[in-house]
Every structure is written in C-alpha cells, then in structure tokens.
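Run log // design_07
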C-alpha cells in the first residue's frame, strides 16, 4: 500500500486510539492531521509494519497533547466529561470496545497518568504486544509490563462491576425517558438506583451542577428543577453514543445535550449529561463512526 492507502485503511483505528487517550473527538482529529503530515514524509521502504508505525506516531502525538489538555482541564468549570461520539450500531456489538469508549470507563481513564492511559488503551483495548507498546511510548518492554499491570489494577478497581447488555441499557433508558418527558416522579425513582450519581458538564456555558449529584432524590430534583423545568418542552430521542444506548435531548426544539448512562442490576447507577455546546457540534451533523 502507498502512504495514502495505508493511512485510510487504518484511520478508524488511529482515531479510536487518539480519542480513547484524549476524550475529545476534536483533539483526536487534530492528532490524525498531524499523524498524516508526519506519515507522508516517511520513506515507506524503511517501514516493516505500517499499522504499528502509524499507531506509534498517533500515540506519541496523543501523549504530547494529553499532557497539555490535562493542564487545561484543571481550570475547567465544573465536572469534565468526554465529548460524546456518535457510533455505528456494530460498535455496540463489540462488547470490549463498547465498554472501553463508554462514558463510565472514559472517566476512569482520566484518572490515569498519560503513559498509563496509553499503555492501557493499546494493551487492553487493542491487544498490542509489549514490545510494540514500548516503542510507541518510549519505555522498555519490562517497564511497560509493570505500567500495564498497575493501570489494569487501577481501572479494575473503579470500572463498573458488571457487563450489561445493550438491550438492558435500552430498557432502563426508555423507562427514564418516559418518566422525564411526563415528569413522572415515581417513575424516575423506580428506574434510578438509590445511590445513583449524576455528572453534568456545561463547561461554564450552560447550567450544570458544579460537582456530582448523588442519590436518587437529589438527582430527580436536579433533573425536574433544571433541564425538566415546566415552562420548556423536553423531548428526547434514542441514539448510540460511545458504543452504548443514549439519549439526545431537546428543549423547545433546540439541542440541549446528550445523556449517557451506566446501568447495573436493571437500574441506572450513573448519569452523564453533556450540555457544553462546544462538545455537541458533531451530535446532529456527523455520520456515526465505526471505530475499528
């Protein structure tokens, strides 16, 4: 394959690596542009494995950018959530990939160091070998093994306790949607777990809680007293975001945000509501992505 063919063939993989490391589709696209510029200048005759070489460029560029955006996020107003990514239905069928890009796990990845995050993504999500990862992150294979073990232990302690089918998530989400649209207080309490946590991201532009809201009662009050206020007509439509069922919400016909959920035991234990307009520019205009 020539340079263009190789880049196009692996573009979805490269985008997913960058997105899982950065949590931002906009930043991931910027990294891909830089990857292409570097790739176009390389003598392909010296490249034995084009896929591994492209991933190495993308990983290094993502690491550089991640160190920068981490400092920027420290000054972010309120909780920070990943940019919602519309994904094709086939992503949901790949259980491991769907979990890796879910809002819940992406937030866990935010607690890793940049190098730990890179190693975890390349090893646990894409099953790269330790030697390949070592070259990508500039560490020895032995060091990468230790980093991978530490990152996996950290993630396993914080990730959702059970794998839930898309069907079960859709069922809980539909109950939540009906209760929200009809302002059914009891319906909301029935579908929310008692210790549910709501994280809302307004980026300082749209109204959002400045810290996570915990417990079903407080979450219901926030939802019905905030985005569900009686003078505005709330409508919602099911979609697939980050490989999992989600809702796109409109107030009086205007896009208000994207709601993703975590479901355990048939009830919603986590709500992730992205209202920051800068993170919603792709929601209604972009074609859903296939991430492999």
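design_07 sequence
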């Amino acid at each position: 394959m020539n340079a263009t063919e190789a880049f196009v063939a692996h573009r979805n993989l490269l985008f997913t690596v960058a997105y899982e490391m950065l949590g931002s589709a906009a930043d991931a696209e910027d990294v891909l542009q830089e990857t292409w510029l570097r790739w176009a200048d390389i003598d392909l005759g010296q490249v034995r494995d084009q896929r591994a070489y492209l991933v190495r460029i993308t990983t290094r560029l993502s690491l550089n950018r991640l160190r920068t955006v981490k400092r920027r996020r420290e000054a972010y107003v309120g909780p920070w959530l990943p940019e919602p990514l519309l994904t094709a239905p086939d992503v949901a069928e790949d259980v491991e990939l769907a979990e890796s890009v879910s809002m819940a796990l992406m937030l866990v990845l935010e607690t890793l160091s940049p190098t730990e995050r890179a190693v975890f993504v390349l090893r646990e999500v894409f099953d790269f070998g330790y030697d390949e990862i070592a070259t990508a992150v500039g560490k020895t294979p032995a060091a990468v093994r230790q980093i991978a073990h530490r990152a996996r232990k950290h993630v396993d302690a914080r990730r959702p306790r059970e794998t839930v089918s898309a069907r079960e998530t859709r069922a809980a989400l539909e109950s939540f949607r009906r209760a929200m649209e009809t302002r059914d207080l009891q319906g909301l309490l029935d579908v929310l777990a008692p210790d549910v946590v709501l994280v809302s991201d307004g980026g300082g532009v749209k109204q959002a809680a400045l810290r996570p809201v915990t417990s079903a009662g407080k979450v219901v009050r926030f939802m019905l007293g905030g985005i569900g206020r009686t003078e505005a007509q709330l409508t919602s439509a099911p979609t697939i975001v980050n490989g999992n069922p989600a809702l796109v919400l409109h107030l009086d016909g205007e896009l208000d945000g994207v709601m993703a959920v975590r479901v355990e035991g048939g009830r919603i234990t986590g709500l992730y509501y992205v209202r920051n307009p800068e993170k919603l520019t792709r929601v209604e205009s972009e074609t859903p992505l296939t991430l492999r």
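The beta strands are 192-201, 213-214, 234-241, 244-251, 254-264, 267-274.
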